Amino acid sequence: MQTIPLGVTGRTTSRLGFGCSTLMGSLGRRGSLAVLEAAYNAGIRHFDVAPMYGYGEAEGCLGEFLARHRSDVTVTTKYGIAPPKGRSFFRVARSIAGPIIRQFPAAKKHLASAAKVAVQASAQPSERKSFTADKARTSLESSLSALKTDHIDIWLLHEATAEDLTDDSLLRFLEDSVAQGKIGSFGVGSDHLQIDDLFARRPEYCAVLQYEWSIFDPVVTIASPFRIHHRALSARLQTLHEALVAEPERLRSWSRETNSDLSNIAVLSRLMLKAALLMNPESVILFSSKQAGRIQANAAVSDDSTLDQPAKRLYELYPR
């Protein structure tokens, strides 16, 4: 697995990182830990989590994993969006839903949709984003405890906008936390549409920027902050695959140009992930999966140089 310096933290980590947003859902704790171990065994050394992930339980699950691997992995977690209320309710609901899904797999999609609605309803708008020094202090201590660690490598302000970052005491708290060794570096994880405004108006918060990037997007021109990207695949993979299948002539042309069978979604997935790595050579690229085989396949993309030219050509072909 290729490695990269993790910004100004002084640590080195893997080019590919594992997103933990799917932990503690339908997999449960045992399945979630197995997925984390699969990522680790595939060479992945960076893990991205947030207090709200996994109905508020993903940090604790990752903390159990870190107890075995903390010295050689790096971690990002976040502050600003509180975990959902009623976590005990979700534990009970998951214990009930598990046997139902095993007996009736077709029910999984409907149960997942219902759970998503319930999670969104459980977080009041006023609790979703709050960026003050006092709340940051409480959130940091909670994350350190859940993750069973004395430091967090990167701490991001979750879905912050420039308008949110008006509390000067918050910046002082972040800088003090770095000086105390509680966090290695801090930054903002937000929608890509907010990034230019954040960097222009609040550069002091932007030592790290995390936002989505896929082959649909132009090459990034911001040079100085350390960047982490996500959603190189996800729905974008399905969108592009469906578009190509719907246009047979373009599918044949692009497949010929890339010397790849782009009708095969697994092939397209590898090229899209490789393009994200190549077009962002100094960034960590996140992905997420519940399947050990897919995790292994994605990890193999990092070192597969035979994918370089096809991936670059695919990026060139996509109209922006």
Automatic annotation (TrEMBL):
InterPro entries: AKR2_Oxidoreductase (IPR053135), NAD(P)_OxRdtase_dom_sf (IPR036812), NADP_OxRdtase_dom (IPR023210)
Residue ranges occupied by any NADP-dependent oxidoreductase domain in the UniProt entry: 15-216
Organism annotation: Edaphobacter modestus
PANTHER family for this protein: D-THREO-ALDOSE 1-DEHYDROGENASE, NADP-DEPENDENT OXIDOREDUCTASE DOMAIN-CONTAINING PROTEIN
Protein name, entry field: Aldo/keto reductase family protein
Origin superkingdom: Bacteria
